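Example record for the data management plan.
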Amino acid sequence: MTILKLFTLSSIFRLTIFNVVILSSVFAGEWVKYGWQLYDQPGDARILSLGGAQVAQGKSISSVLVNPANDAFAVRDDFSYAHQSRFGGTVQHDLLAFSVNRGFARPINIVILQEYVGGIPNTVDGLMDWGADGIPGTQDAGEGNGVLDEGERLDADKITNFHQQQWGLYVSTTWKMNDWTVGAGVKGLFHSIDTHYANGIGFNVGARRNLWKTISVGAAVSDVTTSWLVWDNGTTERALPVLMAGLAGDFTVPLMNWPSSFFTDIVFDLNGEFVGDQFSSGSYRVGLELAPKPSVRIRTGLSETSELTGGLGIVKENWIIDYTYKPSPSGSSLGSSHILTFTVSPRWIFGLLGVSY
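Corresponding structural encoding:
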């Protein structure tokens, strides 16, 4: 029996349970939900316009972030660059994705991510912690407690700004196992906040297959071994696995004769505040893509956090441009988000330059 035959979907989930239960009792660390947020909104404009529902079918290079079994090289041999401006420009996010096939037995998919948040106020030294009367040295209620109480204020001259930046590198590959395409990915993270920094590593696995000619299913587990993030002060943050299953299919809109695709995922996030509730209920994400013309795509989706998204795509033989708009989260003033992706064929670029590829 070969190793690949031993690598079944059931073994993936058994490995997940083993890591959560056994390794948690052996290695110390703080469990966190947002330590790996650089990978929480993965992908390009196309993926995000579809609500992120790409477990069962991915047609863009960076879809390997959702499910490493999405073999990007089989779709297009391209370079893809995506830029996100989220929450009214507060968060700037960049992505570069490409596949390498030459010199390898199977394609190697590479995604580089970067996120920057600047102008974060540091009010630690700016608190005039003088209590309710606003006079220092009276030792009244609230004075010296380190909390901004009623009657206290901040000294604007002592407020400084710092930034947060994250860099990520994701590498994945795929192989065939009977009727399934199986994928595995390793991801690294460098996170800096002001003068502090952390490094981390994690692993994703997944599988997908076609049930019929137009219907596909998939399953994926991110952070399958519990991803680790180690800070410069010795603190270790760990993220629990996220289990995902998906269904996708192609169809034609009646009367209009538009080629279209639907996508739906169910997500079991073990990092929730109430693990049992999260696992038993799960959350959903769905997407719909319409092609009224061969070169035009209209997309909409609903993310697992119930964010409604919409987007457009222009698809040409040698290049693709995708755009996604996400409104400000309901009940907040965080601002809207815009995502733009450029995908280009290197063969076309080298051809224009007169260089063989």
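Summary line stored alongside the record: The chain has one domain: 3-123+159-352.
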